[in-house]
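Hey, quick one: can you model this chain's 3D structure?
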Amino acid sequence: MTTVFRDEDLVAAFKQKRRLFWIYMAVTAAFAALLIGCIVWYVSMPYQDSLMYLPQLILCVAACIYIIFSFIFLGIKFQRVRKYYKMIASLSVGMKHVNSSYFLRYATPELNDSVDYYVLTMCEWSKKKSEYLDRKIYCDKEKPCPEFAAGDKVSYLTHGNTMIGYEIVGHSDRCVTERTAEESGQQPEKHQEEE
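Sure thing. Here's the predicted structure for all 195 residues.
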């Protein structure tokens, strides 16, 4: 079985998260030093000095830049890395399921919980409804996209809908033909699930 995630991915995601946190802390420390420096400079100036506006101006500009930087850095960059780390960490402790389904098509990549995914549409047999149903399986976009052809029978390991590992075990065009007929409005033939 081809494994999508390895133990090194969790360590790398943790290091990246920690590195971004310390970058933000360094920027915050630099802003705090500038703030203290401007306050000391302003207080040490003589009364009604012609340059009294300068520390205030520097502080206002620096505060605006810091707030904009914080919003962009924490709201986009750090959040995405933190969510990616959380997703990889949950793979090691969460419930996993092994399924065998037929691959139908690649769908448009999606952003789900701040993580980019390839979307694979799989065709699963429903014993309850006695028909094939579509299921979206997410595959991490930072990893190579699995090379499946329509009709490949794939055995895969998932956590939720996130693919952890996969293996091609066969090929059949029957599911693809049936789903295409349903999408075009024709009535497909009902049949038992093939083993």
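One thing worth noting: The radius of gyration is 27 Å.
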